[in-house]
Design a protein that fits this description.
Elements (H helix, E strand, L loop, with lengths): L2 E2 L3 E3 L5 E3 L7 E2 L10 E4 L2 E4 L4 E2 L1 E6 L13 E6 L13 H4 L11 E2 L2 H10 L4 E4 L8 H13 L3 E6 L5 H7 L5 E5 L5 H8 L5 H12 L4 E8 L7 H15 L5 E5 L14 H13 L5 E4 L9 E2 L6 E6 L2 E5 L1 E2 L2 E2 L12 H4 L1
Parallel strand pairs: 9-11, 11-12, 12-13, 13-14, 14-15, 15-16
Antiparallel strand pairs: 1-6, 2-3, 3-4, 5-6, 7-10, 8-9, 17-18, 18-19, 20-21
């Protein structure tokens, strides 16, 4: 299903400039943008994936991962085709690296109103756009987020964060959570892994979402041996989270598994993840989680003040939650970056 894009400008000779992500692609007539899902047809920019869905699931919110946002709730998760990055280890490359055609083959149609209806029918508490990059699904996610808000459903972007400020400011009033990847902390790393050298828009967008729009933000870094596991990058990410987003902002350091062009690398040693967590805590972060290591104690939430276990997790389930009204049950320390049913209902 084609829909004229919302954020673009017309240029000379029928070209257009897309304003959805920070690439700001200039697209000639008959061509697509880098993401492969935005087409210039006769001087107008069209989104080729509006309401076109490749993936649907009912997930625990912890799977995104979001650990401080509606813990234990269920989220209706949707994905489509395309991405504005080309990560060389992408777990969802079959859809993320796929261009869209005009006919909509290989997808099914779920209109925004239908997505909201399905989420409620399956007793979900919110909607997440995930699996591929939701930024390039902008028109659909914006319309869906507005309807979700009207129907008391929370909204989540699971994103690489390479969004334009214009697009973020447009959807921000309807977005509740922003789970963003900070893949590394050097231009060289981002260029090698994702095909972009300037990752500042990722950082700026996360800070804007948090500070101006009060959107719940959690950060994920997949730790890849020899590429972004050095002390300098990990310290840089930890200090940036602390200074730009606040010490209560959760940081998930996750285990890499060999895949695609990085199949020659080993899985991340657990001690490397534990060292990354130690770096985060030593630089003032209160909640640093280890991911992709089922059963590790650092999947759980501990009070930063009294060190008592507050939320115990098993895989993606919660076995106990001792945060009450946003505070530690034992010492009443405030957990600022925490959203639960009590604070939102």
């Amino acid at each position: 299903m084609m829909k004229e894009a919302l954020l673009y400008e017309k240029l000379e000779e029928g070209r257009v400039r897309c304003h959805i992500c920070s690439r700001k692609c200039v697209i000639s007539p008959g061509k697509k943008g880098y993401c492969g899902v935005r087409l210039n047809e006769d001087g107008k920019l069209y989104a080729l994936t509006y309401a076109r869905v490749t993936s649907v699931a009912i997930d625990p919110i912890e799977k995104k991962p979001l650990f401080h946002f509606y813990p234990g709730s269920k989220v209706f998760s949707l994905g489509t085709l395309g991405c504005n990055l080309r990560c060389i280890h992408c777990q969802n490359w079959q859809i993320a690296h796929e261009e869209a055609d005009k006919e909509g083959t290989g997808t099914k149609t779920i209109l925004p109103a239908d997505a909201v209806k399905m989420a409620k029918e399956y007793n979900c508490d919110g909607i997440a756009w995930t699996y591929n990059e939701p930024i390039i699904w902008f028109e659909y996610t914006l319309e869906s987020a507005r309807l979700a808000r009207q129907n008391n459903l929370y909204t989540v972007y699971v994103t690489n964060g390479f969004i334009s400020q214009e697009a973020l400011e447009t959807i921000a009033p309807y977005l509740d959570a922003y789970r963003v990847d900070v893949k590394g902390f050097t231009k060289e790393f981002y260029k090698k892994l994702a095909g972009i050298s300037d990752f500042q828009p990722v950082l700026d967008g996360a800070a804007l979402a948090k500070k101006k729009w009060n959107i719940h933000v959690e950060i994920v870094t997949n730790i890849i041996p020899t590429l972004n596991d050095d002390e300098k990058q990990l310290t840089g990410i930890a200090c940036w989270i602390r200074d730009a987003l606040g010490a209560d902002t959760p940081w998930h350091v996750t285990r890499f598994y060999p895949y695609l062009e990085l199949s020659h690398l080993p899985p991340t040693p657990i001690q490397t993840l534990e060292r990354a967590r130690e770096i985060g805590i030593n630089h003032g972060l209160r909640f640093v989680y280890i991911g992709n290591v089922p059963g590790h104690p650092a999947e759980n939430t501990y009070c930063y003040n009294c060190n008592k276990l507050l939320i115990e997790r098993e895989i993606y389930g919660i076995t106990q939650n001792l945060i009450e009204h946003g505070r530690c049950k034992y010492c009443s320390a405030e957990i600022k970056a925490y959203v639960d049913w009590v604070t939102c209902h």
